[in-house]
């Protein structure tokens, strides 16, 4: 199945506090396996599930970590469990959310929105005024999340 993606942008980036206290921290070198497991859990059975195995997820994590802007990227923990990650990369001078991942049992709880709000606060503090995202077409949960935060669809990605 060929999936397409669309680009979304938010400008200006606004800062709203998270709706709840969230324990966040930067990505650690020891997070590799935990982040791979989180990605598999979050994507399984969704439009973004391509049947990846753990090794595929590890390779994806390695790629994300190699590109992420550490000062603006976070993991969210609850009871010492990583339940979400929100990373920022830069492409052609634009900061992009890539990826935002929430554990399957924590979806639709406001965790993704709060993780993005924390990320936006970091970007604004650094003087960033525009942020982008790419979303798989048909991923209605992500589309709703980003549109609800004020992003506008710009068109096909790539």
What would your notes on this structure say?
It contains 4 helices and 7 strands; from the N terminus they run E-E-H-H-E-E-E-H-E-H-E. The radius of gyration is 15 Å and the shape is globular. 28% of the residues are buried. 32% of the residues lie in helices and 28% in strands. It has 158 residues and is an alpha+beta fold.
Quick gist of this model?
The chain contains four helices and seven strands; from the N terminus they run ββααβββαβαβ. The protein is of the alpha+beta class and 158 residues long.
Strand order of the largest sheet: 2-3-4-5-6-1-7
Q: Indicate the CATH class.
A: Alpha Beta
Unreliable stretches covering 5 or more consecutive residues: none
- Give a count of the beta strands, DSSP E runs of length 2 or more: 7
The CATH superfamily is identified as Gcn5-related N-acetyltransferase (GNAT)
Q: Please, what is the oligomeric state?
A: single chain
**Overall radius of gyration:** 15 Å
Mean pLDDT: 94
Roughly what percent helix? 25-40%
Question: What CATH architecture would you give?
Answer: 3-Layer(aba) Sandwich
CATH names the topology as: Aminopeptidase
What is the 3D form?
Answer: globular
* Number of discrete domains: 1
């Amino acid at each position: 199945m060929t999936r397409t993606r669309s680009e979304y942008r938010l400008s200006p980036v606004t800062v709203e506090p998270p709706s709840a206290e969230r324990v966040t921290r930067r990505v650690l070198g020891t997070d590799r396996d935990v982040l791979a497991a989180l990605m598999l859990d979050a994507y399984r059975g969704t439009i973004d599930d391509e049947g990846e195995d753990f090794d595929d997820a590890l390779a994806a994590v390695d790629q994300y970590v190699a590109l992420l802007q550490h000062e603006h990227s976070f993991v969210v923990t609850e009871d010492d469990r990583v339940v979400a990650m929100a990373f920022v990369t830069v492409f052609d001078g634009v900061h992009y959310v890539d990826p935002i991942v929430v554990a399957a049992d924590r979806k639709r709880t406001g965790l993704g929105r709060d993780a993005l709000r924390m990320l936006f606060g970091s970007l604004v503090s650094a003087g960033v005024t525009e942020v982008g995202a790419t979303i798989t077409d048909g991923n209605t949960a992500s589309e709703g999340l980003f549109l609800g935060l004020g992003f506008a669809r710009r068109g096909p990605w790539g």
